[in-house]
Design brief:
Chain lengths: ~240, ~240
DNA sequence: CGCTTCATTGAACTCCTTCAAGGCTCGTGG
DNA sequence: CCACGAGCCTTGAAGGAGTTCAATGAAGCG
């Protein structure tokens, strides 16, 4: 029993495909170059060519874009087990910034390492691409929320989706989860102001649906929250990949 | 001189990599199975497992998601040269619907064809993935627009981006382009109502920035429109891919 | 102990929606 | 050939969801 089997990244990929001893060993090697980054210090900066990608081992990060006027839109949050900058390292381009929300621990993955993994263990490659595809589906769902959901449903959907993602790596359940985000983070992700985020959270709390307080999300009434958000987790748990 | 060199798909990929005779031949084969679809008839339906992908040869389509209440959010438009359902065919999942906006002509591409291309001509594969990555960057930019741009800037940005994409396949310029979208399409894409789209278009027209009328987009003052939209085409023309 | 960050609440305002009505164009059938 | 309906565009008036401005409190930290 190796420690690698308990890494969030392995947990996540295991949900996609049963991994062999060999594949676990490859994952072990990918986790070699451990680094830590302080909260708030940009990992990747908008427009900079990127040299490495990272597998997030502990802590939370977010990818975002800044507008000229200074407003910020958070595109996605990254939690343990998520890849940071996968696409950009393969394609030598980064159109957004990535910032650790708390101090994070991440394994650096160079482009060559990644290409080697793709060449040597295609099943692993498929699982990784699959995870990437799920991330993309989440971005699409996020877009739909910004375009066609009101603030309440948007918030509800967001908190539920985050819960589902955390559950996949053993960090959340239908009861709730620990969450280091501030109301400003929520505002920048949901396209709202922090003031309004506060009001929405109060409404949801007073309606007995969900409580966001002191870094803790508690689902007070999971089913009614799902109904309000029209939350359909179908886009999160997909069928098997095409490569065997 | 082969006809394949004039296909929009080839034009687009050529912007990413210079293609050899062999690669052009492979593209030729990909274009074999031509099919046409009538406007309005769903090509892919939300939730259905998808068997094939398509390369759009002529006409416009859009990918969208429908909410329970019936509201619709258009995620992206596809123009000639674009891939339809690339990710979903590789990963056997489709979380959105695709609808032709006008009658379209598309080449059907089976998963096996695609895998063969990826195995036999890696440079072509890289160019295709690269195009896919650009599409993803556009979705992200779309998300930013919905979250952090007001209706005017959103519309301006959208019309400019579409122009840049069309220019890549020789269907648009700084002067403008032909565009079969209705104001309802714009509304569903921009997260607005058709009524408000109409007002926004009027404002932009009366301000002498851009005219959207009778299926024709005319840039009346390109530079001021770019300024209003804070349009930075950086995310559209990327540096070269990592695979040579 | 002051400074910064985060959360909270009220009041005024505004951007966008909703509701409603009317116009234009084009294809279809009487 | 004209009537009629369907789809799209246009405009006004009223209402609402979310913003902006402003002020206060609580907690963490050097």
């Amino acid at each position: 029993m190796n420690v690698i089997e308990n890494s969030p990244f392995t947990k996540k990929l295991s949900a996609f495909a049963t991994l062999s001893e060999d594949e676990l060993a490859v994952l072990e090697r990918l986790h070699q170059r451990r680094r830590t980054f302080a909260a708030g210090s940009d990992l990747v900066h908008q427009g900079q060519p990127e040299q490495a990608a990272y597998i997030l081992a502990a802590g939370w990060a977010c990818s975002y874009k800044i507008q000229q006027e200074g407003t910020r839109q958070i595109v996605d949050f990254q939690i343990p087990g998520d890849f940071l900058g996968l696409r950009s390292v393969l394609l030598r381009t980064s159109d957004h910034s990535i910032e650790p929300i708390v101090e994070i621990e991440a394994a650096e993955v160079l482009a060559d390492d990644l290409l080697e993994v793709f060449a040597s263990t295609p099943r692993l490659a498929a699982a990784i691409l699959w995870a990437a595809s799920r991330d993309e589906a989440m971005v699409v769902e996020h877009l739909v929320g910004l375009g066609r959901r009101d603030a309440d449903a948007r918030m509800a959907h967001f908190l539920l989706e985050l819960g589902a993602r955390l559950a996949l790596v053993g960090m959340g359940s239908k009861a709730g989860y620990t969450c280091p985000l501030t109301q400003y983070h929520l505002a920048d992700a949901l396209g709202l102001t922090a003031v309004h985020v506060n009001r929405v959270l109060r409404q949801l709390r007073e309606a007995g649906l969900v409580t966001f307080r002191d870094g803790q999300v508690t689902f007070d009434n999971f089913d009614r929250l799902v109904a309000l958000a029209e939350f359909d987790p179908g886009y999160l748990d997909q069928a098997g990949p095409i490569l065997k």
